[in-house]
Amino acid sequence: MDLNLKGTVIIKHVNYPECDKCDKCAEILLEHGIKYGTIIADKSIFGEIMKITNSQNVPQIILNGEYIGGYEELTSRLN
Questions:
Q1: What are 21-73's pLDDT values in tens digits?
Q2: Most buried by CB count within 10 Å: which residue of 36, 37, 58, 79?
Q3: CA 41 to chain CA centroid, nearest Å
Q4: Is 9-78 in CATH node 3.40.50.450?
Q5: The model scores a pTM over 0.85
Q6: How many alpha carbons lie under 13 Å from residue 9 in its C-beta half-sphere?
Protein backbone atom coordinates (compact mmCIF):
# COMPACT_ATOMS: atom_id res chain seq x y z
CA MET A 1 0.00 0.00 0.00
CA ASP A 2 1.34 3.40 -0.96
CA LEU A 3 0.07 6.28 1.16
CA ASN A 4 0.08 8.86 -1.59
CA LEU A 5 -2.86 11.07 -0.66
CA LYS A 6 -3.26 14.59 -1.97
CA GLY A 7 -4.97 17.38 -0.08
CA THR A 8 -6.01 17.15 3.54
CA VAL A 9 -7.46 13.98 5.03
CA ILE A 10 -8.51 12.78 8.46
CA ILE A 11 -8.07 9.01 8.70
CA LYS A 12 -10.30 7.51 11.38
CA HIS A 13 -10.59 3.94 12.63
CA VAL A 14 -13.95 2.23 12.19
CA ASN A 15 -13.78 0.93 15.80
CA TYR A 16 -13.77 4.50 17.16
CA PRO A 17 -16.95 6.11 15.77
CA GLU A 18 -17.11 8.53 18.71
CA CYS A 19 -13.56 9.90 18.46
CA ASP A 20 -13.17 13.23 20.29
CA LYS A 21 -9.76 13.91 18.76
CA CYS A 22 -11.16 13.22 15.28
CA ASP A 23 -13.96 15.72 15.89
CA LYS A 24 -11.51 18.30 17.27
CA CYS A 25 -9.26 17.90 14.23
CA ALA A 26 -12.24 18.51 11.95
CA GLU A 27 -13.14 21.65 13.95
CA ILE A 28 -9.58 22.99 13.75
CA LEU A 29 -9.43 22.44 9.99
CA LEU A 30 -12.78 24.18 9.51
CA GLU A 31 -11.69 27.10 11.72
CA HIS A 32 -8.70 27.58 9.43
CA GLY A 33 -10.81 27.31 6.28
CA ILE A 34 -9.12 24.08 5.21
CA LYS A 35 -11.23 21.68 3.18
CA TYR A 36 -10.67 18.04 4.06
CA GLY A 37 -11.91 14.55 3.44
CA THR A 38 -12.46 11.76 5.92
CA ILE A 39 -11.44 8.15 5.47
CA ILE A 40 -12.95 5.61 7.84
CA ALA A 41 -10.52 2.70 7.74
CA ASP A 42 -11.12 -0.85 8.89
CA LYS A 43 -8.56 -2.78 10.94
CA SER A 44 -6.74 -4.09 7.87
CA ILE A 45 -6.38 -0.74 6.12
CA PHE A 46 -5.54 1.14 9.32
CA GLY A 47 -2.89 -1.49 10.05
CA GLU A 48 -1.31 -0.86 6.66
CA ILE A 49 -1.40 2.90 7.28
CA MET A 50 0.29 2.38 10.66
CA LYS A 51 3.10 0.44 8.95
CA ILE A 52 3.73 3.35 6.60
CA THR A 53 3.46 6.14 9.21
CA ASN A 54 5.00 4.26 12.15
CA SER A 55 2.22 5.71 14.28
CA GLN A 56 -0.78 4.33 16.14
CA ASN A 57 -2.46 7.73 16.41
CA VAL A 58 -6.20 7.97 15.87
CA PRO A 59 -6.81 9.95 13.82
CA GLN A 60 -3.95 10.08 11.38
CA ILE A 61 -3.75 13.41 9.58
CA ILE A 62 -2.57 14.18 6.06
CA LEU A 63 -2.20 17.96 5.68
CA ASN A 64 -1.75 19.25 2.13
CA GLY A 65 -0.49 15.84 1.00
CA GLU A 66 1.98 15.44 3.90
CA TYR A 67 1.53 13.04 6.81
CA ILE A 68 1.90 15.12 9.97
CA GLY A 69 0.74 12.80 12.77
CA GLY A 70 -2.33 13.07 14.94
CA TYR A 71 -4.30 15.63 16.90
CA GLU A 72 -1.31 17.02 18.84
CA GLU A 73 0.75 17.55 15.70
CA LEU A 74 -2.16 19.25 13.93
CA THR A 75 -2.75 21.65 16.80
CA SER A 76 0.92 22.54 17.02
CA ARG A 77 1.00 23.31 13.29
CA LEU A 78 -2.18 25.35 13.10
CA ASN A 79 -2.56 26.97 16.52
A1: 999 999 999 999 999 999 999 999 999 889 999 999 999 999 999 999 999 99
A2: 58
A3: 11
A4: no
A5: yes
A6: 17
